[in-house]
């Protein structure tokens, strides 16, 4: 009997989840925490990460970054100016990263001294949201220019985030961005998640974001996203409904 596309997708995700879980355990034994950054293209994620990396280097935090794109090494060059070890990961057209590919780069490149690894995922809020990379912290970034209803349009991405970062806040007024509506939409899909407001241009929110990441690295209490699966093998959606299987949901996340 031929497998349905849904069955094939479930099998692919289940295999990825297993690899991600083992990678997370291995990295925890090495004292490394992975932070997975998700966003749409043009959110300002790269500039935000560059500022966070530079601040971490100033504070002598053993940090490194992997940045993924379909083509070019432009983002790696920008991030490397921070002084942190950086590597470009080209996906050759693939719209997301997977745990298998991340493991390859971690094994062949990650400096031994690293305690914090930022992974800048491909700019896309659909496919990357489905794949656990072995991260302990998932951060979803969104610019005010993208519209306050974006969390409702991409509930899996926002509903699986441990932290949400609103970027380009200096454009709030020109973009006619409704901050109150945005906050309400975020809480609807991910009740209790913190939203950090930031502006990479003037440095607003950079220290706050880094502090949240370092607190998680040091074992502080972590927000549990509603789309993280429960021990009995299924996940709860934003409204509390059961969602069978992993089916593209974040799995096994914990802070070492």
UniProtKB/TrEMBL annotation:
Region of interest (Disordered), ranges: 218-256
| Highest taxon, organism lineage | Bacteria
Residues forming the CobW/HypB/UreG nucleotide-binding domain are 34-196
Any idea which UniProt keywords this protein has? GTP-binding, Hydrolase, Metal-binding, Nickel, Nucleotide-binding, Zinc
Q: What Pfam families does the record tag this protein with?
A: cobW
Q: Which family does it belong to?
A: Belongs to the SIMIBI class G3E GTPase family. HypB/HupM subfamily.
Q: Which protein, by its recorded name, is this?
A: Hydrogenase nickel incorporation protein HypB
